[in-house]
Specification:
The complex is a heterotrimer of chains A (about 350), B (about 325) and C (about 325). Helices cover about 75% and strands about 0% of the residues of chain A. Chain A is mostly helical and about 350 residues long. Chain B is an alpha/beta fold. In chain B, helix 4 runs parallel beside helix 7 and helix 7 runs parallel beside helix 8. Chain B starts with a strand and ends in a 6-residue tail after the last strand. Helix content of chain C is about 65%, strand content about 0%. Chain C has ten helices and no strands. In chain C, helix 2 crosses helix 10, helix 4 crosses helix 6 and helix 8 runs parallel beside helix 9. Classes of the chains: A mainly alpha (about 350), B alpha/beta (about 325), C mainly alpha (about 325). Chains in contact: A-B, A-C, B-C. At the A-C interface, helix 1, helix 6, helix 7, helix 9 and helix 11 of A face helix 4, helix 5, helix 8, helix 9 and helix 10 of C.
Chain lengths: ~350, ~325, ~325
């Protein structure tokens, strides 16, 4: 029996690329709905107040007066070459802005959602195996509340309690402002500070990371716990779980071995969704914690009507989600033999 | 007597109210005997099977006694219950598609069972010997290419193959009592015949007692020594297979026997039992079968029939006492 | 278990009548036991109200909508007849007042009811502002969810029914939409389409429809797999009729559970947009915008930024509890 795994991965990759192109088409279509003429487009991309003649010049130079198909083609090609336009606020290429800010958000969101997912999965399993006991009800109440709280409420509440009232953690910023950031190698602050062996910065950074990451984790925790609980309840009902008991296995093995192992398979795809949701939450979280990542920059861009920035961020975030989905699909294939074998 | 069930009452607490799944059941199974529990869907037979191995969901309450090999299962503590599972009693289930763990290979699942068995018996086998044992048990259930099957995942096996793996598992565990919960209901006729044959062999060769739960009287006839016909959580009639089938006494049993299509009655209509099973949340008063009984009397509507022993059988019917 | 309609197909999840009652309970102590008299709105009502949590939630939601309708109508009438005081006739106090005597006053029971949630910088009661903003969220949730359902239904059922290229295209397009976090896409759309209450709603509808399209498509495919659609086709019923009189009623039940949850979701997203200043008109309070106004006064003045968020949370929790209960009622699993 031949492993279909490489084929499976290939198919998923093709899927991802197609979705990526379609996603860019979507953004592209949006732009053209909003700015139908070449002059409108030029105004959009430069953000400056130029005269009609100057706009026409810019439009021609940027190729905005060409047929739509060619424009889209150029758009895609530009994207893959790393050309995402020029930021109207900073005046530098968008790609540089994104390079600067995205890794910071990335680290925070990944760590935060990882915490939320890990805790959520185990909490959901515990709730399911103790169904309808006070433990279950307590967990249900917890995930209801954390799920229903808007991202800004969670952020503000945590900030108030942990930073302002208890003085445990700093309320804002990525790191102590008096410290200099380590040399940029990857752009990821934690990695870079370890590489540069800049321990003071690392400590300050981690100190500042807790609140935003915790907030992100809290946001993700709710839906993960609920879905895990439902998935576990389903799994625990299955005949093969009863068979496992029949073999004489202790409850711990059956619940956290057999049932859990089967229940988390569908959860894997949910993790990608959670990551997407967490990025959305990051916008608000970064704003409240003055955490200078891509989310904070997005809010700035909205206030300053920085069209190229919003468009670039949209496409980049879309790309991240597509990649996350791809990884989740592959993981699913690894974990479920039904998917990868004939 | 290997299994002695007395005065068993099982209730489920649901959001809709209290459901009396099993009401006052009494029966027994001897060593080496095979008893079939026959009844329609919802009559409580699966609940009975699950109760014997204490696998009922948490909203179930039970009263009475289930004595297996001298121990009252209902009074055991959790880890004591675990000890009787596998080596004293083993249960196989209905739908082959869900019977095996989808993410583990067959060899892993069989060796899990084997390891437990070894640990309880105080012996141990090394890998090679264990492997040999697994191959042997697969061979005994007439599985072609056992080596290949061992390396496979459950989704790569057919329904019949999965059933045979599960039966091989029971072989390895060598329980005193095997409970088979509708093992033939979800497979086609040829597999049915194989499964029945295998279970009969298990009984003969290893002296295993079998409790065979089914809704199909014809299948039950080929497997069992004794019948226990259940309706709506209560016993209707129990007795030796030949007697019950050739001369059924309880109206329900009669209707069941009559509803089996046979060659000699190839013309005419199928004899179904009119009406439908009762709502277990508010079952009929008196004898629960009375709304559908062709020979219902006034007393049936109000009084519970008690147990009557006659002609080697136990009956619950006002017609006889 | 059928909620609405005399659906042409039989009960979709369980067996019939009382049979299977005990077997069907194997692991689920929740609502999978079919009952004797098991249909009809009266049963639905009884079931929903039996659980205390959903009873309270239901009451809160009803109060929320009733109040929102009343207040919303009053606000519109006030606008129309240019009599602004009508807009706060049923509120504890005037939400647009400038009363520096009460500026940043802490929450207190002394000034019941206007003062129980405190005051902002201009001396406005936080409670009054929260209540004043309520209709906009209620309307947003209803309009967005219903529009998304209609669009999703039309596209999803068609795609599932016709299959082939139409189906492929729908799947890829919804994939593209779903590749974005809801908030980000809503921001981008609202940003591009311009700032206003209705453009924000349009943006939200665009964000929401793919989920429903996928759901209806999945339902259609399930029905297809049961041969039910084939049978209808063979009896000569035209495509349009099949889709709307046969497929739709069968797909509707689980939608009610999803929709209830989504009312809450939309309010969450809408208020987050308001927090970022999107869709907010000058001077008109929004739950999200109230929070962002109050941000600058933290930590000393905590009530301004905290209470609007708590109001959102309470409403969303209630939708969530109710939605869960409805899902118990409808039974079966929701697959996308």
């Amino acid at each position: 029996m031949v492993s279909q795994f490489p084929l499976f991965v290939a198919r998923r990759a093709v899927n991802a690329v197609v979705t990526l192109i379609l996603m860019m088409a979507l953004v592209f279509a949006l732009i053209h709905v909003v700015a139908p003429t070449p002059d409108d487009l030029a105004r959009l991309y430069t953000g400056a107040h130029l005269s009609q003649a100057q706009l026409a010049q810019v439009a021609h130079r940027l190729g905005l007066d060409q047929p739509i198909w060619i424009q889209f083609f150029n758009y895609v090609v530009n994207f893959f070459q790393g050309n995402l336009g020029t930021d109207t606020i900073y005046g530098i290429p968008e790609i540089l802005v994104i390079e600067r800010f995205l890794p910071i958000t990335f680290e925070m969101v990944v760590i935060g959602s990882l915490i939320g997912v890990l805790i959520g999965v185990f909490t959901g399993a515990i709730a399911a195996s103790n169904r309808n006991t006070p433990t279950d009800y307590g967990i249900k109440a917890t995930y209801l509340v954390t799920w229903a709280a808007p991202p800004f409420l969670a952020a503000i509440a945590l900030q108030l309690v942990l930073a302002y009232y208890l003085n445990l953690l700093p309320p804002t910023n990525v790191a102590d402002l008096t410290l200099v950031a380590p040399r940029v190698v990857t752009g990821l602050p934690m990695v870079d500070s370890v590489l540069a062996q800049d321990w003071p910065y690392l400590v300050s950074y981690l100190h500042h990371l807790v609140l935003p990451a915790l907030t992100i984790g809290l946001i993700s925790f709710g839906s993960i716990t609920r879905i895990t609980r439902a998935s576990m309840v389903d799994a625990l009902d299955k005949d093969y779980v009863k068979l496992a008991y029949m073999k004489g296995l202790p409850k711990r093995n059956v619940v956290y071995g057999t049932a859990f192992r089967n229940a988390i398979i569908p959860i894997v795809t949910l993790i990608a969704l959670t990551f997407a949701f967490a990025i959305g939450g990051a916008i608000v979280v970064e704003y409240i914690f003055a955490y200078h990542g891509i989310g904070y920059f997005t809010v700035d861009a909205v206030y300053n009507l920085d069209y190229p920035a919003i468009l670039a961020i949209t496409v980049i975030v879309g790309l991240s989600v597509i990649i996350a989905n791809f990884i989740a699909d592959v993981l699913y294939g690894i974990m479920d033999p039904r998917v990868r074998l004939t | 007597m290997l299994l002695d069930v007395g005065d068993l009452k099982i209730n489920y607490g649901t959001v809709y109210g209290n459901l009396e799944a099993v009401k006052g059941l009494n029966f027994s199974v001897d060593k080496g005997e095979s008893v079939a529990i026959v009844g329609e869907s919802g009559c409580g037979k699966s609940t009975l099977g699950l109760a014997i191995v204490r696998l009922l969901p948490p909203n179930a309450t039970y009263r009475g006694r289930i004595v297996l090999d001298g121990k009252d299962v209902l009074k055991l503590k959790k880890n004591e219950v675990r000890m009787i599972r596998g080596t004293d009693v083993f249960m196989i289930f209905q739908d082959p598609l869900n019977s095996l763990n989808p993410v583990k290979r067959v060899s892993a699942q069989l060796s899990e069972a084997l390891a437990i068995k070894q640990r309880r018996a105080g012996t141990s086998l090394d890998e090679k010997a264990a492997h040999k044992e697994m191959v042997e048990s697969l061979t005994s259930v007439r599985m072609p290419d056992p080596e290949v099957i061992l390396q496979r995942y459950p989704h790569q096996l057919s329904g019949g193959q999965i059933q045979r793996v599960v039966i091989a598992m029971s072989l390895m565990m060598r329980p005193k009592l095997l409970i088979a919960d509708e093992p033939t209901s979800a497979v086609d006729v040829t597999i049915q015949a194989q499964v029945i044959k295998l279970i009969n062999e298990l009984k003969k060769e290893y002296g295993m007692s079998v409790l065979f739960i089914t809704h199909d009287m014809a299948v039950a006839y080929t497997v069992a020594d004794r019948f226990l016909v259940m309706y709506a959580g209560e016993l209707s009639e129990s007795g030796p297979v030949n007697k019950v089938v050739k001369s059924p006494l309880h109206p329900y049993t009669m209707a069941l026997v009559n509803s089996i299509p046979t060659k000699s009655r190839s013309e005419g209509q199928l004899n179904a039992i009119p009406g439908s099973p009762p709502n277990m949340l508010s079952p009929p008063l008196g004898c629960r079968f009375h709304p559908r009984c062709p020979r219902v009397m006034d007393i049936c509507r109000t009084n519970d029939p008690g147990n009557t022993e006659m002609d080697e059988r136990t009956l619950r019917c006002h017609l006889y006492g | 278990m059928r909620l609405f309609g005399r659906g042409k197909e039989g009960d979709s999840t369980q067996g019939n009548g009382g049979s299977g009652a005990a077997e069907g309970l194997k692991g689920r102590d929740a609502a999978e036991v079919p009952l004797g008299e098991s249909s009809g709105l009266r049963f639905v009502y009884r079931f929903l109200m039996k659980d205390k949590a959903s009873l309270v939630s239901g009451a809160v939601i009803v109060a929320f909508f009733v109040f929102s309708v009343l207040e919303g109508v009053l606000q519109q009438v006030a606008n129309y007849v240019r009599q602004p005081s009508l807009g706060w006739a049923i509120l504890p106090s005037n939400p647009e007042i400038l009363d520096f005597g009460h500026s940043l006053a802490t929450p207190t029971f002394a000034q019941f009811p206007a003062g129980i949630l405190g005051y902002d910088y201009e001396g406005r009661s936080i409670l009054s502002q929260i209540l004043y903003a309520a209709p906009r969220d209620a309307v947003a949730s209803v309009l967005v969810v219903f529009s998304a359902i209609i669009i999703g239904m039309l596209l999803g059922i068609s795609a599932g029914y016709f299959g082939g290229w139409a189906d492929e295209i729908l799947m890829r397009v919804t994939d593209a939409f779903l590749a974005f976090p809801a908030i980000l896409l809503a921001i981008a759309l609202a940003f591009l389409l311009g700032n206003g209450y209705y453009t924000v709603l349009v943006a939200l509808v665009v964000v929401w429809w793919p989920t429903y399209a996928r759901f209806f498509r999945a339902q259609t495919l399930t029905l297809k797999a049961r041969g039910y659609i084939e049978a209808s086709k063979l009896s000569g019923i035209g495509s349009g009729r099949i889709m709307f009189r046969h497929i739709f009623p069968n797909a509707v039940d689980p939608i009610i559970a999803i929709a209830t949850l989504d009312f809450g979701n939309v309010i969450l997203t809408y208020s987050t947009l308001a927090f970022l200043g999107i869709g907010v008109e000058v001077g008109v309070p929004e739950w999200g915008s109230l929070t962002s106004e109050g941000l600058g006064y933290l930590p000393g003045v905590w009530w301004w930024a905290l209470f609007p968020g708590i109001a959102i949370m309470v409403i969303v929790v209630c939708f969530s509890i109710l939605g869960d209960r409805i899902q118990d009622l409808v039974g079966g699993r929701l697959t996308y």
